[in-house]
Amino acid sequence: MTLTGREAGIDLLEKALADCVAGQSRIVLIEAGTGCGKSALVDLVAERAAAAGALVLYAVGAPEEQQVPLGVLRQLVNSEQVFALPRPSEGPGAPSRIEAMQAFCAELRELSLDCPVVLCVDDVQYADRESLQYVQYLARHARTAPVLVVVAGAVHAPAQDPAFTTELMRQPHFRRMRLERLTAAEVALVRGRPGGSAHAAEAAEAAELYRISGGNPLLLRALVEEAAGREAPAAPASALAPEAAAAGPRAPSFPSPEPGGPFAQAVATCLRRSGPDGLALARAAALLGEQATAARVTRLTGLDAAAARRGLAALEASGLLEGLRFRHPAARAAALEECDPRTRTALHRDAARVLGEDRGPVLAVAEHLLAACAEDRPLDCGPAEVAVLRDAAEELLVRGDAREAARLLELAARGPGDEHVERGILVRLAQITARFDPAAAERRLGELLEAARAGLLDAEQVQPLAALLLAQGQIAEAAALLPAAVGEPAASALDTLVDATAAVGERLLQSARLTDATVAPLAQALRSLICSEHPERAVPWSRNLLEEARRCQAPGWSAVFAALHAEALLRMGDLRGAYTHATAALEALPERGGSFPCAPAAVLIRACTAMGRFTEASRLADRQVPKGLLTGLHGLAFLRARGLYRLAVNQPHAALADFLEVGRLMEGGRVDRPAFLPWRTDAAEALLRLGEGVRAEQLALQQLALPDAQRPYVRGVSLRIKALAGDPKRRTAVLGQALDALHRSGDRVEAARAMAELGRALQADGSPAKGSAMIRSAWNLAKEAEATALCREILPDAPLAAPASRDRAPAEATPATGTTAKLSSSEQRVATLAAQGLTNREISAKLYLTVSTVEQHLTRVYRKLQITSRGDLPMGLEPVTPTPA
Question: Is pLDDT at 4 greater than 50 in this prediction?
């Protein structure tokens, strides 16, 4: 009924009351959805009847009193204490009941002689059967008395006495009215905004209020109260819409209702007043959500079809449901809150069963199975549930939700059944976990590795397990599994990785998309490129895979490829880039456990050491790493990085111990490949610091004798150590060969180191100018790579701060154009030696000047050339003849 209809309904009630006062009997039945205003109308009639001098008898039905005989009738009689309720005899037979009803009717007729009598029964759907019989008898036998009977009930509610309403309808003085929910226009009117005068924002607010409340006055009032942030003030009753008018003043703004707020509480009240069936149906609809259908809701509640139809119609009539969907998440949450956790868990189990029987979406079924385990109670998953969970996990992976997929597989793995299936689930779970937490994935591998060694895994399960071990750097363990899987024994676990050609690796990188199955082969292809003769090719490929891993929202994969990208950059001497991406790899890890963090940590230690950031390198290098984690590739790289740091901070004995331990582990694990890790030349450098040149030369020669010495990087570092430890007469020639190899390897830092050694050798061989120029070039190359520690080693006194760009051009133009101030011959000689890399003390000894005089000359040179440090001195300065005074 529209708002005008409500007005007509009020007119009908007022006319019925007037007829009663005039001495006529009337019966009015009010029907409405829960919360739609019927109780307010009953209260209004009672109030106006009392004001007119009528005797008002009032009763309200309640579900908990529905089985109490004559409970409602006692409320009517006791509400005014007008007479005692006749008590029927205890003996069998109808006459006693009829006599009691006759006496009740006679008492009311007698009372009506003094004043009109108005009987109001609200929530008549909960009235007991016996009381309804009394009211029904009164309606038939008090037609000539001034008695008004007003009963109100919820529409579509199951009748306690199906004949009651029918009997009332047979009476000629019966009237029936039905209250409908408010329309959108009526909601706007109730909010004080007539349609024509409403602004766009106000109209939108009214539309939103209608959308959420469905036009239910009780819910509308709760929404307004919640928006106002305070209790709505009491409003005078309105003849037009008593409950709607009580909605209160307009709120300044309309926030969305929240779970547990006034709106949610009003929803809970409506649900409780909808009766057990309505509440059960609302819970089922809320639980099934988007998968709710009438048939599924009926099966989930266990109600018969007729009861379910009535209950759903009642919920829709009240505006709580639109179809089978709640109008707002807060309403749905309120429905779910109306049951205890144990009941909710049972409902989730039943929902999973119902959806499974209907072959519903696997994700929806899996969601209910997960929710059923939320209370930490064991859930028995049969083969069908396990299959659903596995399928749902794969669907979640397609959507990029690896964590939720892992939760589903963890639940599936707990299901009883075939151990072979369970092990397959655990392998897949480890694969998925590696997407977001490599350390957690590594922990899962222990039990699987034992099962594989015991021959409990088939080839289909061994292959992904071996790939996981490879990705974790456990190359020896992976190699031990693979022959059993593919029947191909390997001479060395690292051979396949190191000996793969760049073309083979790039073909895989070009063709394979990043997935759980390809992440390990792709990582291995990148490592092969890093170890190859063309490590520069690994840089763009690792960058591309890192970007793809980030698009997949897989932090574990991001950490893997960020570490490999950092390693590739470090291999090319890009210290800053290596530092940045190694840091990113560590930050992408949710935890630092396991062996994988050793890989980015190793790159970070080496980068920090080369950049002179010894404090930061120390924090990483001094971290205690369990010995069991040092046997894999990542652990070996960490040990080497720690040794290089210790060597840089003048701890050669500790460094040598680390390098020799690396060698022992590599030889013991049959992974001794200098292309991956040249431990011999590392140890030889430590031995040189300790004055053991013979042992150092032996190690360098051993490394040169290995096949990997044909690779430029291995050959370059080996020749450099051989030159330093061997015959000084051949040092220059051997260092030249080392420098050539290192230039071809692409490693700028190692090339700068060899170049500096060659410059010193040239100086020692009697070519000071050439040697100084070489040293200066080495310093510039190291500075370009930000290898601060090497810069200080090459030219301890050379400042590393770069001059401002505006100062560079005049300084570089000075020798060529001669347009700036001219240098004296003494200044020229000092500047030339300083540009060649000599220190102030060396210049003073060479020119027979005091150190103070050298400093004064340099100060004047800087001023004339408009530079700030010797790092800006141009090479090739020529003396200028002094101008006569």
Answer: no
